[in-house]
Amino acid sequence: MQISLEDVKALYEKPFMDLVYEAASIHRENHNPEEMQMCTLLSIKTGGCTEDCSYCSQSIHNNADLEKEILMKTDDVLEQARAAKEAGSTRFCMGAAWPRVLDGKAFDRVCDMVKGVSDMGMEACVTLGMLTENQAMRLKEAGLTAYNHNLDTSREFYDKIITTRNYDDRLDTLKNVAKAGISACCGGILGLGESREDRISLLHTLANLNPQPESVPINMLVPVKGTKLEKAPKLDIFEWIRAIAVARILMPKAMVRLSAGRLEISKEAQALAFMAGANAIFTGEKLLTTPNPEENFDAALLGELGMKPRAPYKDEPVSKKACAA
Ligand code: SAM
Ligand code: DTB
Ligand code: SF4
After folding, report:
1. How do residues 14-45 score in pLDDT, each as one tens digit?
2. Where are the domains of the chain?
3. Is the C-beta atom of 162 inside 6 A of ligand 1?
4. Does the global pTM surpass 0.85?
5. What is the homologous superfamily of the domain 5-324 according to CATH?
6. How many angstroms separate the CA atoms of 308 and 267, rounded?
7. What pLDDT does residue 312 have?
């Protein structure tokens, strides 16, 4: 059933406490509120990307101070995945600064990485830019759990942020991912200078994807020096919480993932985000190219809140939906 833009707007603009309360209630009906999914990111190919995403340190159209790196070797990636598993992560996400996937040796290697991570009993996720249905099928065969491909912002605001591709290019890849039977990890970035209407429009598009995303990353812009958005004004933290709460209400089964930007967000605001339904975080000192809270910050925060890491769904006997309380 389609969710109307008016309904999303009405939800987003509810009194703050009512919105958080409703999101917390839906969260508890669908997930164990004590559990947090821990996911680790690794940049397997860094920098030199030809897309012009205004926020990204890896775009050749920006001037971030970044060391470019060629595609990593499979063994090195698997060693890092093993370390992440030992540190308590149950999902390993590999990112490549590619505008799109090209068939060939590099893609073959990424499929090997996915297989290796999956064979370790971890959920495997990749984000490689645009891809075809055939390429999605190959990743599925290799054992991929989810493909991360964000819509980033509203259709209306998109060309203020990226001009080298359009919204429909993004949606086409999401269709190819769905046709291959892979779950989508699809969300956006807040704090790009978008309006509240744009955030509402993004949430409306995400909630009407069919199927809905299995995971919804909510990134807060990390203003990287040398990028066009380096001086973007900081977004009010309550707008971030509102977006999280609306995502939780509209996509009750999804993992709502606090992604980039946590380093600058207080532990109190993060706790409020967990209350509003966020149930996944990226752990480890680095995201792809920018810093992230240290492991002991996350461990202390979860400890203080009486929360615990969530097991990988692969270990669950029936299905990942069995975690509904
Ligand atoms: N090239 C692929 C793509 O664009 O889909 C994968 C890598 S890209 C770095 C993955 C996501 O990271 C982007 O879609 C964006 O949402 C997020 N991201 C990148 N730079 C960011 C920044 N400076 N602040 C917040 N989120 C960022
Ligand atoms: C997502 O939405 N956020 C993650 C993951 N998917 C790949 C990436 C965040 C990147 C933040 C900027 C950086 O570290 O370069
Ligand atoms: Fe390239 Fe992805 Fe960065 Fe855009 S967000 S410049 S596509 S790596």
Report:
1. 999 999 999 999 999 999 999 998 889 999 99
2. 5-324
3. no
4. yes
5. Aldolase class I (3.20.20.70)
6. 16
7. 65
